[in-house]
Hints:
By secondary structure, this protein is mostly beta strands.
Amino acid sequence: xxxxxxxxxxxxxxxxxxxxxxxxxxxxxxxxxxxxxxxxxxxxxxxxxxxxxxxxxxxxxxxxxxxxxxxxxxxxxxxxxxxxxxxxxxxxxxxxxxxxxxxxxxxxxxxxxxxxxxxxxxxxxxxxxxxxxxxxxxxxxxxxxxxxxxxxxxxxxxxxxxxxxxxxxxxxxxxxxxxxxxxxxxxxxxxxxxxxxxxxxxxxxxxxxxxxxxxxxxxxxxxxxxxxxxxxxxxxxxxxxxxxxxxxxxxxxxxxxxxxxxxxxxxxxxxxxxxxxxxxxxxxxxxxxxxxxxxxxxxxxxxxxxxxxxxxxxxxxxxxxxxxxxxxxxxxxxxxxxxxxxxxxxxxxxxxxxxxxxxxxxxxxxxxxxxxxxxxxxxxxxxxxxxxxxxxxxxxxxxxxxxxxxxxxxxxxxxxxxxxxxxxxxxxxxxxxxxxxxxxxxxxxxxxxxxxxxxxxxxxxxxxxxxxxxxxxxxxxxxxxxxxxxxxxxxxxxxxxxxxxxxxxxxxxxxxxxxxxxxxxxxxxxxxxxxxxxxxxxxxxxxxxxxxxxxxxxxxxxxxxxxxxxxxxxxxxxxxxxxxxxxxxxxxxxxxxxxxxxxxxxxxxxxxxxxxxxxxxxxxxxxxxxxxxxxxxxxxxxxxxxxxxxxxxxxxxxxxxxxxxxxxxxxxxxxxxxxxxxxxxxxxxxxxxxxxxxxxxxxxxxxxxxxxxxxxxxxxxxxxxxxxxxxxxxx
Length: 731
């Protein structure tokens, strides 16, 4: 084994010492060889359950993570299975520096903050932007890769804090069938199936399916009824030309959770299970993702790839959110205007309808040529690419105007959708006001076309030294329209050149140290929606500096550490009513460290920590954000998960998630406290089946899982103590 550097040795101590004893996962007989410098994986009874990630799945990146001058965190299938993970949101709780947002405004589905910046449009599926507004499941995923830091050179617009790439399961040449079933103490029942069949020596097909029904958490009004089917067909495996066809079809019938309103600077102090929606609330979603790709090896060191992906998401939502807290009298509802000393029993919550029918779609085509070449003693790993894409968005809003205590909550001509009022304590969860007439609101539309070319070169100057350089030119043309809201229409054309440079020093195969610089940009019409006064602004520009290291130690244990700075230098800032200028500056100084893999043959761990010192250091002052911390950005986050084989066939494990305090609104007037949540697992493992018990939130900690900055800042409580029993059978 290579001698550890002082930094690597310190990281082993940091992550190994506090983690409790937990269990090992197994490795298949046909697992791929370890990366250069890594020790061979352990093989136990033919089952793969290593947390350690393999080669990167993104074609835009080198397969070896040591050659990527950015931090990458991978959550793979083995780790997700050991934790009982079923959704993208649950999987991303393993990535420090990520926080979750709830549904708000015109947005539904997974809303994520990464390193202090919104990443709602920075979610990818197999390297393609997956911008549809829906709740993503993991039944058809092999792993999730999170690339930290601005990455517009690789991915185009957005990616200020980084990108999240979902890696789909693909057909392979090994026949296998896997069926699982689980049930929780909440009453959620779930089953999945995964069938892979070899059709010939060079072709295979694979089908995955999922169905679930019941309460998703201990909170009231969280019932889900979802199902999905995914599949892939691969022809030409192991030949010079490989063709891949894949599809995902998913249907969600869920109850939305808009959380708790704020009172006196904190989430209102009620029982965690309290919800303020109506029993008739629901979010129905239909998702279709289709992909076709061809990979052709022109020569041993030259490969041409072309892939087209089409995504379509339709959402029909009837939702009621807690808008504000106030009092009720003979004249109706009166909202509080400041702090209140009144008892909670005398306060009410005004509900607001958030009804809409949304259609999101996109079609993108990427052509990439990768080649290895040499100019004298310098070796080159080249990537040339062309991307063409079209996005579309259609959102028909509806509103339900109601009354409180017999008094209308708004004028008859208003479109605010204030619907009803319910007690802060024991709201009753009735369908009261559910029959209120629905009226047509704003109809928003948008579309965008993207044309981009990019080139990247990883140059090996010597065995130990590499330089990375890349450029991407984007032409982004977008337009939006509104029937009631303003602006009535807007359009913009953005031309932007993104840059990526880095230097890598690899003194041995098990060590890699790097410096990197990258940029990204955010057009004002990036999400195909617009705020009046912002539509004609130039794009926000972001830049990042990062220094870090990656080490392979012990029996396949991978360590990493990095320090970084991300700056949004010309953020949109309000200077007067309806007028914005690029006067803002948001800066995040941070550090992260992680450990993934086996400490011993029986003990493996996945842990990472992120420190974020984020602040708005430039703003007009009018919006009250100058000097404030960005929404939903904790200073400290730590995630740990570990497993240990205590006896033949028996495994125990667990870990903690820690998050320091954060703010639910941009002016930092609503503070949400920090928390530590503990989870655990016990499993009985056989060659053909596993029986696993997962225990979530062991101490029944009251904490807030997702924050929503609208309506003054709302907070969604996390689930209480829950147990899940699952059986996984392999044929």
